[in-house]
Structures are given as C-alpha cells and as structure tokens.
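A favour, since you know our structure tokens better than I do. Could you add the entry underneath, on a fresh line?
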Amino acid sequence: VLDGLRYDYTISNQQFKSFLSSAKVSVDSKFYKMSAQLPSMSVPNWVSIVTGSPPEATGVLGNLLIPETPYDSIFRQAMNYNLNRGLTASPWFKDIIKSTLPYLRGDGTLATDVGNGNQSRPSSQPADHIRAQVLKLALSETDLPYTLFLAHFSDIDFQGHCCGVSTKYNIEDTYNQA
C-alpha cells in the first residue's frame, strides 16, 4: 500500500511506471486503481482496503483512536484458513486488525518518525526503508512462507500533507522524491 500515491503519478512518472512493471516487483505485487473513500484520510481507507466496506458502513471517519474493526477482513479470513499472514506498516494500521496477526511473527510495524533524527526535512522515509527490509525478509521466508503479507509505505502521504504534491507549493519536490 503506497499511502497517498496519486494514480496520475503512476502514469506520468516513467521511473515509477518501469518499477511497477519490473518482473521483480510485479510477481509478488498487485496494482489496483482505487478511488479514495470519503473522508479522504488514511485510516478509513485502510479499513476499506482490508474489509471491502466503505467508511459509512464501518463508521471509521477519522484517523484517531480507531479500535480494531469488527468487520470481516482479508486478515480474518486468512486466519480462519490458518494461512500465514503478516504486516509491516504504521502501528495505526496494525491496530485495526491486531487480533488477526500471529503473535510476534505477523506484526512488523514501525512508527513513521523512526530514524527521522538526522533528516534535513520531515520525512517517514527512514521508516519506509526499514519496512522495505522487513518486506524483503518476509518474501524470502522459506520455513513458514507468508500467504498474505501487506506492506504499507507512508512517506508519499507524509510529503503530500507536509509539503504538497505540486512544485508550485513544494519547491523541493519531496512528494515525487518519496
């Protein structure tokens, strides 16, 4: 999940387009054009992604103090079928599905400000870098391979909120660099 990524960016940025279509990425990934649910906030949309239910059904309309969803989810179904499942994401993402993750094995969450102390600008890129390492480890697992592993990267969304998505307002173009 590339949180905050605009669909038009996946078409207009040749480097990103090539990355998505590369054999190394496309074999283990799915690419879907999604319409953001309103309100256009991260957590209501995360709940929609894992449950298939819109915010007006789940009641999740904001980002703060969201309990675990009581709605069925892809993680609950994977648990019901005893499939190995995991997540690397913001702790807020884990909170909505926490009882469906295997203890100590399924939770690879990192706060967005992890490793941000040496950055010249606000960024969650260090956390995303560590999440990418967790994802690589998960994909290379052979003893108990993951059937479902969701990786959430947040610096794109962070840069959009912090600095804007266009160079008119974001002179350093940090959105496109994320």
